[in-house]
Design brief:
heterodimer, A: alpha/beta, Rossmann fold, 10 strands, B: mainly alpha, 2 domains, 2 strands, 80% helix, globular
Chain lengths: 239, 338
């Protein structure tokens, strides 16, 4: 039994197949990369895993249990946290309050929640902006807050949706450090990323999709050399 | 001074003043205004939780107010028991109406939900009008007030107002409070943090309905008369609740108290023609036009509300309490300039 498995997922929006039969398995402790050109169905796959969309068909299994019919908050409570590509800070709350709200998913008292939140904030390097309103953060801070909030729900699997997009080179290095730290912490990571430097350095396995269908899967090296992947990214002229 | 006292200094001073007030001021008229003010503190605080903290703007507070009032009235009318039972039961009846309503209507977001609350209000008003055998229809319900003095009502209303603010404070600083604000800020993000947004929105509405219902039951007991157009009134109850919240400060604990004080004062100013100022001026000067101004002003109280809200939104978008630092800074700077 796979630790986490996506089985022939299909999602139609009207007549359009956004995801059309994607299957993959993720082992515990892995960093699993999901790549593909714009509109290939990566975020839709995430949305189905995290319960924002119901799959048209197919299943998502976590430790052998079907989870694709659970509501979003139920999936979070099972231990699958996510970040959003288009960041969703709780704007008129401070960074600390954002993380406290997330920490409440595992504890009930303010003291415990605050304690969990403070630890998470330190872990994610958010301490300097702890008391800043979330809406006042620059993009790097917002991306970091997305991760911090997801981590405060103590996930076993963390879904990262383009957390490195829009960051400058220094911030990028810091983001990679943070992702590695999260893995060392024992959290399994599924990551969507466009920046090849990031995804190739940190992923154990990479799954490539295009037009909602799998085109390749393997180690970063194998995928980078794969003809279908090169074709999808660069066009037939360069393949 | 202990820290807890220091932090709550202003509210505590204010509490002291309202506690002592009836002992000093025995005038029934002002006591009546104070009772209305305290009732609006309860309603405004309740509206503030659902709309200000949870971000689900309700146009239908009168629905819950009316439920509470009719619970008290009908218990007394049909069963002959004391209408004070309504104070205990009215809140639960209103919450029992709010919960299934929320279960169905919280599938809608934003303005659509607000419209649904408007509909609930109208459905109940029409229902209470039509079901003549049960509610007395347009004839309304008349009960004998328990006390002739206004003092008992004053202290009951004060106890309710204090309890409602205390419970609001407790709620917003606890887990549900964090969840409510998270839902207001971003419902999708809240879901992804493990928050059952549907459930928590229902809980928030039930809380608001509960307190609004209690206020309705108090109204029945105090005024002794209700009919559907009074307690299910859109502009006298639902809109007034929104004004109290917006003027005082949406999403602040003490905002509705400040808003209630201001709105009740403004309402009474218009209703009484600025406490009879223009009528008096007219009588003194013998000018008929001044007396006419008094009549026009009395009739224009809704217009006055509208202007007040426009001014508040333009100058203090976060309400008086929400923009208090801004107000203090400006006043302070003026002082320094002088």
């Amino acid at each position: 039994m796979a630790y986490f498995q996506v089985d022939k997922l299909v999602k139609y929006f009207g007549g359009l197949a956004a995801v059309n039969g994607v299957s993959f398995e993720v082992d515990q402790g892995q960093i699993f990369g999901l790549i593909g050109p714009n509109g290939s169905g990566k975020t839709t796959t995430f949305n189905m895993i995290s319960g924002f969309h119901r799959p048209t068909s197919g299943r998502v299994l976590f430790k052998g249990r079907e989870i694709h019919l659970l509501p979003t908050h139920g999936i979070c409570r099972l231990g699958i946290g996510r970040t959003f590509q288009v960041v969703k800070p709780l704007g008129r709350m401070t960074v600390l309050d954002n993380v406290i709200a997330a920490a409440y998913s595992r504890v009930n008292t303010f003291r415990e929640a605050r304690e969990v939140a403070l630890k998470t904030i330190d872990f994610c390097g958010l301490a300097p902006v702890r008391d800043v309103l979330a809406k006042a953060l620059p993009i790097a801070g917002r991306k970091r807050l997305e991760i911090g909030r997801a981590m405060a729900t103590r996930p076993e699997i963390l879904l990262l949706d383009e957390t490195a997009a829009g960051l400058n080179p220094t911030e990028l290095v810091e983001a990679i450090e943070l992702i590695k730290k999260i893995r060392e912490n024992g959290t399994t990571i599924i990551i969507i990323e466009h920046i090849m430097h990031v995804i190739m350095t940190i992923s154990d396995r990479i799954h490539a999709i295009n037009f909602g269908q799998t085109i390749a899967e393997g180690t970063p090296k194998e995928v980078a050399a794969n003809q279908a992947v090169i074709q999808a990214y660069l066009g037939t002229d360069y393949a | 001074m202990p820290r807890a006292v220091k932090r709550n200094f202003l509210p505590l001073v204010f509490l002291g003043v309202v506690l002592a007030m009836p002992l000093v001021m025995r005038d029934d008229y002002y006591l009546h205004l104070m009772i209305l003010f305290l009732m609006w503190v309860v309603i405004g605080s309740a509206w503030n939780l659902i709309a200000g903290y949870t971000g689900q703007v309700s146009f239908g507070d009168a629905a819950f107010f009316g439920c509470g009032a009719y619970t008290a009235g009908l218990l007394s009318h049909h069963l002959g028991i004391s209408p004070w039972w309504g104070l205990a039961l009215g809140g639960f009846v209103a919450a029992a109406v709010g919960l299934p309503f929320g279960w169905i209507c919280f599938r809608m977001r934003g303005a659509y939900f607000a419209l649904a609350t408007l509909a609930l209000n109208e459905v109940l008003r029409q229902g209470a009008t039509i079901a003549e055998n049960f509610t007395g229809g347009m004839v309304g319900i008349l009960i004998m007030p328990s006390f002739t003095s206004k003092m008992p009502y004053y202290y009951i209303a004060l106890a309710m107002a204090v309890a409602s603010i205390a419970s609001l404070r407790w709620v917003v600083h606890s887990k549900p409070g964090y969840y409510f604000v998270s839902i207001r800020e971003d419902q999708d993000a809240a879901e992804s943090l493990g928050i059952n947004t549907h459930l928590y929105k229902m809980l928030s509405l039930a809380y608001a309905a509960f307190w609004t219902g209690i206020a309705g039951a108090l109204y029945m007991n105090y005024m002794g008369f209700i009919d559907p157009h009074v307690v299910f009134s859109l502009h006298d109850i639902s809109i007034m609740a929104i004004l109290v919240g917006i003027v005082g400060g949406v999403g602040t604990v003490y905002g509705p108290a400040v808003g209630a004080f201001l709105m009740v004062t403004v309402q009474e100013m218009f209703r009484s023609g600025f406490f009879g100022l223009f009528q008096w001026l007219g009588a003194v000067s013998g000018s008929e036009s001044l007396a006419k101004v008094a009549v026009v002003l009395t009739q224009a109280h809704v217009l006055g509300f509208g202007i007040l809200v426009v001014v508040v939104i333009l100058v203090l978008p976060n309400g008086i309490v929400g923009d208090w630092p801004k107000i203090r800074k400006r006043v302070f700077r003026l002082d320094a300039g002088n």
